[in-house]
Amino acid sequence: MHVAQRLLQRGDEVVGIDNLNDYYDVRLKEARLAQLAPEPGFRFARLDVADTTAIAGLFDNEGFDGVIHLAAQAGVRYSLVNPYAYVQSNLVGFVNIFEGCRHGKVRHLVYASSSSVYGGNTRMPFSEHDRVDHPVSLYAATKKSNELMAHAYSHLFGLPATGLRFFTVYGPWGRPDMSYFLFADAILAGRPIDVFNHGRMRRDFTYIDDIAEGVVRVLDRPAEADPGFDKERPDPAASWAPYRIYNIGNHQPVELMAFIGALETALGRQAEKRFLPMQDGDVPATCADIDELRAATGFHPATPVEEGVRRFVEWYRGYYDEARF
């Protein structure tokens, strides 16, 4: 929604697709759509990216210039429960989008990867130049697979493709299964919050406006082949094909307890905390090296957590109606 708003504000014509599944509250998804519906340059199609025939028809009818592929089955923990949802959306759906771009001769495809691809890596900050061969969840494995599939299409068909590894995105209109959203709901309802790894977590929390700005800037700079690519010493971040990978994170990792503190301050309430062990598929820390993104676009995320959390809480209270708390 945020990316679509930016594109519409600058005069682009946008076609949005979503299957509006019930992984989380469909009413929130519909409310996001309602923010876009009045825009004369916006059209919506209720489609599933895993529906091969429907996606092919969409590309045939529209003749897209660029594609921003943010659709996926998200969430690390849910991948332990329903792995098949990830195969359909993140693998089958991904191929369908690439096939549409290939046959539609799309100028540039930008797609969402994830910081989760770094998996078992512990060297900080995470760099695109590091190998990412040890995922710790199926979700992470599908995102790594997306990057590999993108490279194959870039190599075989000359399709410019750029993957963005998002780092812990938060902010207004976000997903209710994300920790900050769950924390806010529990604190205002007087329930305890679950704090995993006994609070010893660090995350590169990245505000949604920074993510949207980065996505649009990258879209305007189609990936190009690296003429200096050395196949004897291959760089995972580049290629002889028109293929690129960028981290997009705040580059300011925050202790989970400090983030909770910012949320408590914005809400004006203290949280009752229930400290628990690390969850399967999780990692203790993330931090993005954003030098490549900054060099390519001149932009880097910089919204402080305190400001981003304040804006989220302001939206949250307005959307859910403060009276119910």
Structure description:
It is a single chain. With 325 residues, this protein is an alpha/beta fold. It is 40% helix and 14% strand. The chain contains ten helices and twelve strands. The protein has helices at residues 2-9, 26-36, 52-62, 83-104, 138-157, 179-189, 208-219, 256-267, 291-297, 305-320; strands at residues 14-18, 42-46, 66-69, 108-114, 161-166, 169-170, 193-195, 202-203, 206-207, 243-248, 254-255, 273-275. It has a four-stranded parallel sheet, sandwiched between helices. Strands 1-2 form a two-stranded parallel ribbon. Strands 6-9 form a two-stranded parallel ribbon. The two termini are 27 Å apart.
Summarize the structure.
The protein is an alpha/beta fold and 325 residues long. The chain is built from 10 helices and 12 strands.
Task: Throw out a few tags for this protein.
325 residues; 4-stranded parallel β-sheet; two-stranded parallel sheet; 10 helices; 12 strands; globular
State the separation between the terminal residues, measured CA to CA: 27 Å
Output the helix-strand order: HEHEHEHEHEEHEEEHEEHEHH
Query: Uncertain spans, ≥5 residues at pLDDT below 50?
Result: none
Range of strand content: 5-15%
Radius of gyration, Cα only, in angstroms?
Answer: 20 Å
Any idea what the shape is?
Answer: globular
Number of helices: 10
Describe the SSE topology:
Blueprint (H helix, E strand, L loop, with lengths): L1 H8 L4 E5 L7 H11 L5 E5 L5 H11 L3 E4 L13 H22 L3 E7 L23 H20 L3 E6 L2 E2 L8 H11 L3 E3 L6 E2 L2 E2 H12 L23 E6 L5 E2 H12 L5 E3 L15 H7 L7 H16 L5
Parallel strand pairs: 1-2, 3-4, 4-5, 5-10, 6-9, 7-12
Antiparallel strand pairs: 8-11
